[in-house]
Amino acid sequence: MPCVLVVEDDPEIRELVMTYLMQADFEVVTAVDGIEALRVVRSVQPAVILMDMGLPKLNGWQTTQRLRARPDTAHIPIIALTAYVLEDERKRAIEIGCDAFEAKPINFESLLSKIRTLIASPAPR
What we know:
The chain has about 120 residues and is α/β, with parallel strands linked by helices. It has one domain (about 5-120): 3-Layer(aba) Sandwich (Rossmann fold), CATH 3.40.50. Helix content is about 45%, strand content about 20%. It contains 5 helices and 5 strands; from the N terminus they run E-H-E-H-E-H-E-H-E-H. It has helices at about 10-25, 35-45, 60-70, 85-95, 110-120, and strands at about 5, 25-30, 50, 80, 100-105. Strands 2-1-3-4-5 form a 5-stranded parallel β-sheet, with helices on both faces. Strand 4 (about 80), helix 4 (about 85-95) and strand 5 form a beta-alpha-beta unit. The protein is globular and about 30 Å long.
């Protein structure tokens, strides 16, 4: 069962995403901010990270850049989850190292498809 790290500060969204992924047979771990995500990813080494970009303490942009800069985490696929839906934001997410982008409110069928695609053929880093 692949593990997905959900990095989301909103408890309702975090719970909804976690429940949906567990029903789709994924193991799920969570973090509420970027600092916690950096700690969790070291111990768990998830198959995919779902990264809210508007996080407190260390935002999703900064957290993604730090994960991409580390050899032990650079290979982990990251999907940006964000309400920032302008084309510039999508481009920025890809430029900083996200492998995919999913706008909020989340389309779970689309998200699940992206997760499965990235697990099946992770992007080389």
